[in-house]
Amino acid sequence: MSVPRVMLGGVGTRSVSPVFVGRADELHVLHDALARAAGWAELAAAQELVRGLPPSRVHAEVLTMIAGWSMVHAPGPEALLDAQRAVEYARMVGAGDTELNARLTLGSLMVDAGDVEEGLAAMYAVRDEAVERSLTALVGRSHVNLPSCLDGVGRAREAAEVLREGLEHTRRLGLPETEAFVRSNLAESLFALGRWDEAVESASKAATLARSAKPRGSGCLHLASLALARGDAGEAARLLADARGHYGTHDLVPQYAIPLTGLTIGVAAAEGRIPGARAALQRALDTGFPPGTQRYAWPLLLTAVTAEADARGLPAAEEGRAEILGRVATVLRRLPTGAPVWRAHEAWVRAELLRAGGVPAPEPWSAAVTAFEPLERPYDLARVRHRLAEALPASGADEEGRDRAAELLRQAAAVAGHLRARPLADEVARLARRARLPLARPPGTPSPAAADPVEALGLTGREQDVLRLVAEGRSNRGIAEELFISPKTASVHVSNILAKLGVSGRGEAAAMAHRLRMFSRTP
């Protein structure tokens, strides 16, 4: 989940009514921090004050703030037009810094609208210029908004790299509140990447470091998601309540409201309260999913249909079941899938809908597995592998199919054990017993991963290059010179490699690479 993407800089004071315009910005930020008001009344009043006056920098700044407000509160085509107008106006009056701020907002809205690469390129350009010119507020905002958009299209590893850089900048510049936002977003990226202990640490720091409500709420929400995935529904419920308290009830924007509802559904399902889960889903469907919020909508729908599928056959869950599943199916036809991660989620949700209807066909689950395999989302991949392993025997698979199911279960069990994802581990164990699928590989049977240990460990091409140099004893600076990257980027790659290998230092990583003969085929 992203954190507030509108982190507005101060308004200039070089035109008519500077006190009021400055006060509008101050009140907007204050209201956002206290989770009490939207700030729109102040922005609208500021807009009225400058309407009809000669073009000025203050006018450009007001338009930029309005575009930012629209991005968070009312995303969609009109917000995109607001941002385009703000960029053009700032450029016209020569307000360079304001134009950069507006371009960052515009880039984010372009990503939401499906123009992913151009939008991200625009945001990277703003980030780079802000860093080069030491524009403190924009350095902070760009290191929150850019990785949020990267996460929103499933590029969690890239987001994590930007966020790590953001931590360095925010600490150096003395921006503790922005650091809290960065840490909250980092927790989301780390969760997707399967680095859950690091995610817990990052979310906890966000919740304790922040002085305002939003990052505290986001930190609690991430911790609640982790607790639920690890099987502690009671702790998840407590943290969910804390998150609600921090966010407040006034002006709960979609980027908070939708994930809150998704977690509400998940907690209710884990506690066996299917009517409560369904009621929360009904409210979300009644409200609808505004344009640009698909990144929050897909996980919510997945949680809901998974709960319905798990509850199939329970008498208390039958009434109203067909109707709610029909409503979900209708929503799917309208929800964008503009990135591979959301196309994978669509395949997953459709497979869960069939499971909820009692259809054990393996083909939809095979499609979901295929969609997730290229993505760096080990927990998601383990879950769909578990469901494919369940569907194969249920559909009367032959011996080869049963062998495949057993291997899928072993892979899912390994991930569940590594992440300490107890609910998934328990489901895998139950299925293995019920379907009589061995979780232990028969003696003498080679692991499919044995043929390619590098691929089995999930290392990217660049990480393979870095690990090879680590195994040769190169320092970060030596790696950077060899691969034409910065030492900081080399350090990030090394940290990611250590996490994937499950080792604590470079020496252990090098030893593992040599032991597994990972680069024995390298000329």
TrEMBL record:
<keyword id="KW-0805">Transcription regulation</keyword>
<dbReference type="Pfam" id="PF00196">
    <property type="entry name" value="GerE"/>
</dbReference>
<dbReference type="InterPro" id="IPR016032">
    <property type="entry name" value="Sig_transdc_resp-reg_C-effctor"/>
</dbReference>
<dbReference type="InterPro" id="IPR011990">
    <property type="entry name" value="TPR-like_helical_dom_sf"/>
</dbReference>
<dbReference type="GO" id="GO:0003677">
    <property type="term" value="F:DNA binding"/>
</dbReference>
<protein>
    <recommendedName>
        <fullName>HTH luxR-type domain-containing protein</fullName>
    </recommendedName>
</protein>
<feature type="domain" description="HTH luxR-type">
    <location>
        <begin position="452"/>
        <end position="517"/>
    </location>
</feature>
<dbReference type="InterPro" id="IPR036388">
    <property type="entry name" value="WH-like_DNA-bd_sf"/>
</dbReference>
<keyword id="KW-0804">Transcription</keyword>
<keyword id="KW-0238">DNA-binding</keyword>
<dbReference type="GO" id="GO:0006355">
    <property type="term" value="P:regulation of DNA-templated transcription"/>
</dbReference>
<dbReference type="InterPro" id="IPR000792">
    <property type="entry name" value="Tscrpt_reg_LuxR_C"/>
</dbReference>
